[in-house]
């Protein structure tokens, strides 16, 4: 009886093995799309191995499309126009595209598989985005969950960016994480220091990149990133400015203020920084010091849940109630917001209700 059972098991194992081999062979041949062409803006062709995402295929050829989520299909940043090829729109793309983008055949590069020749349109400034190699030269603990990390570029390398833009940090495998991922972080240093950048990174529990930064990285480590990306930068006007930020959203505002200290400005600026309690505040003295640098600048930290031991005598609650009393002329005011999507949405609604035009509200949202 036992021999019969063992014989049956051996037969099943043999059949399973044969089926597995057939599946491997089928997978290899059915998914072999060969070499296909990506035509860019009708000007340039690149040949790539078919079957990979458009986002990764372009990155392999040093063309870096913005992707804050690292290609997971959640941020919607990697939009590009496709005039031919690309296959049908996927359900994962539709929620992140507007009606106009659906009509104009805008797609998410991370979701489109390059299986045949494809024709795409991307902004020309994307060709200025590069990959940089760097070494960590400083790590500062700003709070219990926020670090400032400075990356010095390889000798002779320089990065040309606008204050407020961001880069995408590329992790290295660590612990159980066997693959690299990339995540977007705003640059907090000024463009005039073009041989290095500083990032302000808040720890997110179970976040692949923030865990890597907070628990693995140390001074001297070599790190790569791509950039610069983004259209969050100060517009060259004479309008009053409202800055609103929370958490690590202080990074791009710091970069803008550091830059303005170099080039000078007479614009009237108010900066509201929202935090829960005093332990979530950082760089407060540095921000207050700008009140002595600029003739018309005010820094206003606002605590939503100050603790008794904080002995806080500043503004409390949320930022929104303080906005209207700060705005002198809604028609001549610009707002620059950086923080969570919820904060961006709430502050934007308050600003629009106060009379600021929607197209004068610039934001850098992170989830």
Question: How would you describe this protein?
Answer:
The chain is an alpha/beta fold. A six-stranded antiparallel beta sheet has the order 9-8-11-6-7-10. The protein has a six-stranded parallel beta sheet with strand order 15-14-13-12-16-17, sandwiched between helices. Strands 2-1-5-3-4 form a five-stranded mixed beta sheet. Helix 7 runs parallel beside helix 8. Helices cover 25% and strands 29% of the residues.
What are the secondary-structure elements, in order, as H or E?
Answer: HEEHEHEEEEEEEHEEHEHEEHEHE
Using the alpha-carbon principal axes, give the shape.
globular
Kindly state the mean pLDDT as a whole number? 91
Strand proportion: 25-35%
User: Strand order within the widest sheet?
Assistant: 9-8-11-6-7-10
Total strand segments: 17
Largest sheet: 6 strands, antiparallel
**Which spans of ≥5 residues are poorly predicted at pLDDT below 50?**
none
Amino-to-carboxy terminus distance: 61 Å
Total of DSSP H or I helical runs spanning 4+ residues: 8
Rg over CA atoms, rounded to whole Å, is 25 Å
Fraction of residues in H or I helices: 25-40%
Keywords:
6-stranded antiparallel sheet; alpha/beta; globular
Write the layout of secondary structure elements.
Elements: H1 2-30, E1 35-40, E2 44-49, H2 54-60, E3 79-84, H3 99-103, E4 106-108, E5 118-121, E6 130-141, E7 146-153, E8 166-170, E9 182-186, E10 196-202, H4 208-215, E11 222-229, E12 240-246, H5 250-263, E13 269-275, H6 284-293, E14 297-303, E15 315-316, H7 320-326, E16 333-339, H8 341-353, E17 361-365
Parallel strand pairs: 1-5, 12-13, 12-16, 13-14, 14-15, 16-17
Antiparallel strand pairs: 1-2, 3-4, 3-5, 6-7, 6-11, 7-10, 8-9, 8-11
Helix pairs in contact: 7-8
């Amino acid at each position: 009886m036992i021999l019969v059972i063992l014989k049956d098991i051996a037969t099943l194992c043999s059949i399973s093995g044969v089926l597995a081999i057939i599946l491997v062979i089928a997978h290899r041949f059915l998914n072999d799309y060969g070499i296909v062409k990506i035509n860019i803006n009708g000007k340039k062709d690149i040949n790539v191995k078919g079957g990979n995402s458009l986002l990764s295929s372009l990155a392999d050829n040093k063309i870096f499309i913005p992707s804050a989520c690292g290609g997971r299909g959640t941020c919607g940043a990697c939009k590009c126009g496709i005039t031919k090829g690309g296959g049908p729109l996927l359900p994962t793309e539709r929620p992140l595209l507007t009606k106009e983008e659906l009509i104009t055949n805008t797609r998410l590069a991370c979701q489109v598989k390059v299986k045949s020749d494809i024709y795409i349109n991307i902004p020309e400034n994307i060709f200025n985005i590069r990959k940089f190699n760097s070494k960590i030269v400083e790590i500062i603990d700003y709070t219990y969950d926020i670090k400032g990390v400075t990356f010095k570029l390889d000798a002779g390398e320089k990065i040309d960016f606008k204050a407020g833009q961001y880069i995408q940090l590329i992790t290295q495998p660590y612990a159980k994480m066997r693959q690299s991922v990339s995540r977007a972080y705003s640059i907090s240093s000024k463009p005039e220091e073009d041989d290095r950048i500083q990032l302000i990174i808040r720890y997110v529990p179970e976040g692949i990149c923030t865990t890597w930064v907070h628990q693995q990285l140390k001074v001297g480590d070599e790190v790569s990133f791509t950039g610069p990306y983004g259209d969050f930068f100060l517009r060259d006007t004479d309008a009053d400015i409202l800055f609103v930020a929370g958490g690590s959203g202080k990074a791009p505002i710091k970069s803008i203020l550091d830059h303005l200290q170099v080039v000078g400005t007479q614009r009237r600026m108010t900066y509201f920084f929202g935090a829960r309690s005093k332990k979530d505040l950082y760089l407060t003295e540095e921000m207050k010091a700008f009140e002595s640098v600029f003739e018309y600048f005010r820094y206003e930290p606002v605590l939503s849940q100050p603790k008794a031991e904080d002995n806080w005598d500043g503004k409390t609650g949320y930022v929104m109630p303080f906005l209207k009393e700060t705005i002198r002329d809604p028609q001549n005011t610009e707002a620059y917001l950086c923080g969570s999507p919820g904060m961006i949405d709430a502050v934007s609604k308050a600003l629009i209700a106060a009379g600021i035009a929607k197209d004068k509200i610039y934001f850098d949202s992170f989830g």
